[in-house]
Amino acid sequence: MRGSIGIGWLVAVWLAAGGGALAQDTSTGHAQAVEGDRLQVNGRVVRLHGLIAPALKDPGGAEARDLLERVVAGWVVTCHRIGVQRNGLMVAGCEARGRDIGALAVEAGAARDCPAESRGRYREQEARAPVDGPGRRAPLPPECVVRSR
């Protein structure tokens, strides 16, 4: 009897830690851009890890979304969960044809590198991005700025 309680407790802890979500850790399918840093893959909206783009309602938001749409149009995209935002939105690294969708989005000017989250992963792509791209018009929000210690 005691062993059953121990196993049940372990299963409960495993599920609470996200172990029950293994089937949801990867989404693969044709993608549609929702915003400049968000895709919908198989009906699931994911935010691209390490990027920031204007919201759809903000200036440049629709243009950023359209740029990202051109990046993923016709491609099968695979997104691997990295985390989950407080609102339940999956944060993921996504790729198609062996290419990082985040890098392509930044280089196209749809989004910017968010160094506090990406650790500067997209710095080179941002340097090559068009200066007037919709994702580059606004300054980085405070949550993307790396603070000195």
Give an account of the 3D structure:
A hairpin with a 2-residue loop joins strand 6 and strand 7. The strands form two sheets. A five-stranded mixed β-barrel has the order 1-2-3-6-5. It has a two-stranded antiparallel ribbon with strand order 4-8. The longest helix is centred in the first third of the chain and has 15 residues, at 2-16. By secondary structure, it is α+β, with helices and mostly antiparallel strands. Helices cover 30% and strands 28% of the residues. The chain is globular, with a radius of gyration of 18 Å. The protein has one domain (22-144): Beta Barrel (OB fold (Dihydrolipoamide Acetyltransferase, E2P)), CATH 2.40.50.90.
How many domains? The number is: 1
Q: What is the first-to-last residue Cα distance?
A: 52 Å
| Count of runs of 4 or more consecutive helical residues | 5
CATH fold-level label: OB fold (Dihydrolipoamide Acetyltransferase, E2P)
Please give the share of residues in helix. Answer: 25-40%
Q: Mind describing the biggest β-sheet?
A: 5 strands, mixed, barrel
- Secondary-structure element order, as H and E? HEEEEHEEEHEHH
